[in-house]
């Protein structure tokens, strides 16, 4: 049985239920602000699911290579290894405001120190990255098929706390570090780096991000971390749709993303937030990101009972340079085929409630961002020839995306 914490306060208890399910019950003293999710308000009856975990508890479970490493490490000790076992291991360090401990344990969010600058310096060996994964795997409650870890950077701390700086007494994770298998997805870190730069130029909120000198890793500041060391709430669109991570490719951009955001945003400036979300969807089409699934959109909030605006952008990649026939992760107009501009224009008119002139202006902004970032890619290639094949491929895919999905050259 696990104790569930929200905002560093006990909220309820989570345990296995039936043959393959789980049950979560709020503690009697839990107040409405202790809610584990915007989708699970505090109530007397338990929240039961027949298979696995409820979406909010499933959201940050590691996937892929990191999950397999944890399974191999802990399966012998536990005898079994299901979702609850995995949550027991990584539960004290998670993205967002929810944490997990054993029933009688106190919450300890301490994460080991690691210099981000050491990661960013060139010449880091594969052994060094394997060391990092082994060291931080059990502190990394973050989803993703490619390896990601949460770590605490020494330089993010200040002996004299000031606005924007954390006290040295802070012990939680400050950064996300992302690695990739270079033989399977070469130059994927640089790929994401330039996609994030394009998003930034589109006026979207993007956390601070840095590319390692040898392009073997991407370091991203945590956007859910407040200067006082507490965490904002974060929930991806799998959670908002009542789905677990293995259902992340189920749904449409019309209903599962834009409509669902309207349902939970509670935003005082909803039309502006819808414009940002529509821009992100259109950008994903233009850069040919076939992995813009439900887990790659989210909301971030300071109060589970108040507004929940769109979270900063993350996990943007041009996937078609690796998978030439890749398609969209979710449907639009009932298909995953890359949309023509008229389909996106209709989406903007119906779901964003924008005028044709306003939507075309957004298309032009995206196109300009891609043109500027393509120039950055060409400059980067001159100093990093290993990126030439992928970089040139990205520029070609972006040009195709602009012509087809934005009707702009």
Structural features, described:
- With about 400 residues, the chain is of the alpha+beta class.
- It has a domain at about 235-405: Phosphatidylinositol 3-kinase Catalytic Subunit, Chain A, Domain 5 (Orthogonal Bundle).
- The protein is about 35% helix and about 15% strand.
- It is built from twelve helices and 13 strands.
- The chain has helices at about 55-60, 65-80, 85-90, 115-120, 125-135, 190-200, 235-240, 255-265, 270-285, 340-350, 355-385, 390-405; strands at about 1-5, 10-15, 20-25, 45-50, 100, 150, 155-160, 165, 175-180, 210, 215-220, 235, 300.
- The chain is globular, with a radius of gyration of 21 Å.
Output the CATH topology of the domain at 233-406: Phosphatidylinositol 3-kinase Catalytic Subunit, Chain A, Domain 5
Structural class: alpha+beta
Radius of gyration, whole Å: 21 Å
CATH architecture of the domain at 233-406: Orthogonal Bundle
Instruction: Identify the CATH class of the domain at 233-406.
Output: Mainly Alpha
Q: How far from one another are the termini?
A: 57 Å
Inertia-based shape = globular
Structural topology:
Elements: E1 2-6, E2 9-17, E3 21-26, E4 47-49, H1 55-58, H2 64-78, H3 83-90, E5 98-102, H4 116-120, H5 126-136, E6 148-151, E7 157-158, E8 166-167, E9 175-179, H6 188-201, E10 209-211, E11 217-221, E12 233-236, H7 237-240, H8 253-265, H9 270-286, E13 298-301, H10 341-352, H11 356-383, H12 388-406
Parallel strand pairs: 7-8
Antiparallel strand pairs: 1-2, 1-5, 2-3, 3-4, 6-9, 9-11, 10-11, 12-13
Helix pairs in contact: 6-11, 8-9, 9-10, 9-11, 10-12, 11-12
